[in-house]
Design brief:
- This protein is mostly beta strands and 125 residues long.
- The protein has strands at 4-7, 10-13, 18-24, 34-39, 46-51, 58-60, 68-73, 78-83, 92-99, 112-115, 119-124.
- Strands 2, 4, 5, 6, 9, 10 and 11 form a 7-stranded mixed beta sheet that branches.
Length: 125
């Protein structure tokens, strides 16, 4: 059973940066597209970013474009989310997830088949 373990969350002031990491177990990491989602208190889980298995194609939530960067290192079975210019509205639990093979709707949670436990990001004003 594949496991995803996030790290790197924490408390940061507005305008600051954090880098989230997600380490995957197993040997098939490079075969799957990966994504980051987030869930703020009282809100539904929302798509943040996705990256194709090759690492070339990347997709972002409009509100994070230009501030967040998703990347992956297939040799290390790890996907990253570099978050810059953080805003209080970015406060949420951030989840790493693996897409089902053949997924095309990056924002639809039904296309995700494996989730991490989440890491909390708190941005103070």
């Amino acid at each position: 059973q594949v496991q995803l373990v996030e790290s790197g969350g924490g408390l940061v002031q507005a305008g600051g940066s954090l880098r989230l990491s997600c380490a995957a177990s197993g040997r098939t990491f490079s075969s799957y597209d990966m994504g980051w989602f987030r869930q703020a208190p009282g809100k539904e889980r929302e798509f943040v970013a996705a990256i194709k298995r090759s690492g070339i194609n990347r997709y972002y939530l409009d509100s994070v474009k230009g501030r967040f960067t998703i990347s992956r290192d297939n040799a290390k079975n790890t996907v990253y989310l570099q978050m810059n210019s953080l805003k209080p509205e970015d406060t949420a639990v951030y989840y790493c997830a693996r897409y089902r093979v053949g997924s095309s709707n990056w924002a639809n949670v039904e296309y995700l088949e494996v989730w991490g436990q989440g890491t909390l990001v708190t941005v103070s004003s």
